[in-house]
Design goal:
With 200 residues, this protein is an alpha/beta fold. It is built from 8 helices and 8 strands; from the N terminus they run βαβαβαβαβαβαβαβα. β4, α4 and β5 form a beta-alpha-beta unit. The chain binds pyridoxal-5'-phosphate.
Length: 200
C-alpha cells in the first residue's frame, strides 16, 4: 500500500519538509498548479513520482504527460486517445488509472461501473498502461460499498491497483484492498480556500 501525499494548494515551502523526510509520492489535481511547483522539486529529487488525481481537460494532455508519472483520472475515449498520441509524440509511457464513477453521480467524472471493463480494454488497445482503477465515493454516502465495488471491478479486469481512500475514509479503503490512498488534510492540515486567481 502506497501513500499519495496530496499537495494541491500547498506551496513548495510547505511540501519540502515532507520530501526531506523521505517521502517521494505526491498527487496534484490541476496541471497548471503542478507545473508551477513540481519541475523544480523533481529536478532536485529525481525519484519523486507525481500522480494527477483531478479531472484532465484534453487540451492539457501534452503538459500532463510531460510532467506526471501517472494519470489517475482517465475517464473518456477522447482523453485516452489524446494520452496515447502524446505518449507516442513524447516517447514517454506513464501509468494510467481509469476513474470509475461508482456512485453514478451526474456531476462527477468517471466511467460507469458497467462500462469499466470495455473502457479499460479500449485503453489497452490504444497502448495505455492501465494498471488500476480510481474512485471518489459520493460525499454523502457510506464509502465501503463503493470501495468494494471498485475492488471487484479491478479483480474482474485483472488490474493490480486500487486508488481509493482520502483523509476521512482511508482506513476503510485499506480494509477493502486499496493499494494507493490519497491523503491531503491528514498530512498537511486543512487547505486554505484557493485564491480567486487560481487556474482551473
Ligand atoms: C484533494 C483530494 C484528495 C485528498 O483529500 P483529503 O481529504 O484532503 O485527504 C484525494 N483525492 C482527490 C481526487 C482529491 O482531489
Amino acid at each position: 500500500m502506497s501513500l499519495v501525499a496530496v499537495t494541491k494548494s500547498w506551496t513548495p515551502e510547505a511540501i519540502r519538509p515532507v520530501v526531506s523526510a523521505g517521502h517521494r509520492l505526491f498527487g496534484e489535481n490541476r496541471v497548471q498548479e503542478a507545473q508551477g511547483k513540481w519541475p523544480e522539486l523533481k529536478a532536485l529529487y529525481p525519484d519523486i513520482r507525481l500522480h494527477l488525481i483531478g479531472h484532465l481537460q484534453t487540451n492539457k494532455t501534452a503538459d500532463a504527460v510531460a510532467l506526471f508519472d501517472a494519470i489517475e483520472t482517465v475517464d473518456r475515449p477522447k482523453l485516452a486517445a489524446a494520452i496515447a498520441r502524446e505518449q507516442e509524440r513524447q516517447g514517454r509511457q506513464i501509468d494510467c488509472f481509469v476513474q470509475v464513477n461508482t456512485g453514478e453521480e451526474l456531476q462527477k467524472s468517471g466511467v460507469a461501473p458497467a462500462d469499466t471493463a470495455s473502457f479499460v480494454r479500449h485503453c489497452h488497445n490504444l497502448g495505455l498502461a492501465v494498471t488500476g482503477l480510481m474512485c471518489i465515493p459520493p460525499v454523502d454516502q457510506e464509502p465501503v460499498p463503493h470501495f468494494a465495488l471498485l475492488a471487484k471491478l479491478a479483480r474482474d479486469g485483472d488490474l493490480r491497483h486500487l486508488s481509493m481512500g482520502m483523509s476521512a475514509d482511508y482506513a476503510a479503503a485499506i480494509e477493502q484492498g486499496a493499494t494507493y490512498v490519497r491523503l491531503g488534510t491528514a498530512i498537511f492540515g486543512p487547505r486554505k480556500a484557493p485564491p480567486a486567481t487560481a487556474s482551473v
